[in-house]
Amino acid sequence: MLDEDIKRLGVKERSDEAGIIAVLLKHFEAHRIPRALDIKERVDKGEPLNDWDISFIRDVLDEANRVEPLVNRHAEMQSLYAYAVRLYHEITATALLNERAELQLEAP
């Protein structure tokens, strides 16, 4: 799947992956991590995910699936990828607990 994206972007050789990695890391650092940490802070306080959060998480997970083959070819990215997976797992697991607690409070 990523190979198709690479071709569509005009990347013809694997050596061009360095540029793709640089762009992905910059985007991840500037946008994905700060937003994820904001969401995590809110769910850690007991707040539920809102529609924007859910959409964001879906987008991140879709992106993670697309870049996984690239990550598998570049060991230097694997610890960051694993960190991101753990972070999003913590967010979703905590949000699920929050939803369950809210449902119990609403039950008659």
β-sheet strand percentage = under 5%
Q: What's the pLDDT, averaged over the residues?
A: 85
Judging from the principal axes of the Cα atoms, what is the shape? elongated
Count structural domains.
1
Give the class from helix and strand content and strand pairing.
mainly alpha
Helix content: over 70%
Helices and strands, in N-to-C order?
A: HHHH
Low-confidence stretches: none
Amino-to-carboxy terminus distance: 48 Å
| Number of H/I helices | 4
Please compute the radius of gyration using only Cα atoms: 17 Å
Main beta-sheet annotation? none
What brief labels describe this structure?
single chain; 108 residues; mainly alpha; 4 helices; elongated
Kindly summarize this structure in a few lines.
The chain has 108 residues and is mainly α. The protein contains four helices and no strands.
What are the SSEs and their pairings?
Elements: H1 2-8, H2 17-44, H3 51-73, H4 78-106
Helix pairs in contact: 2-3, 2-4, 3-4
Structural features, described:
81% of the residues lie in helices and 0% in strands. With 108 residues, the protein is mainly alpha-helical. It has one domain. α2 packs antiparallel against α3 and α2 packs parallel to α4. 8% of the residues are buried. The model has no long low-confidence stretch (mean pLDDT 85).
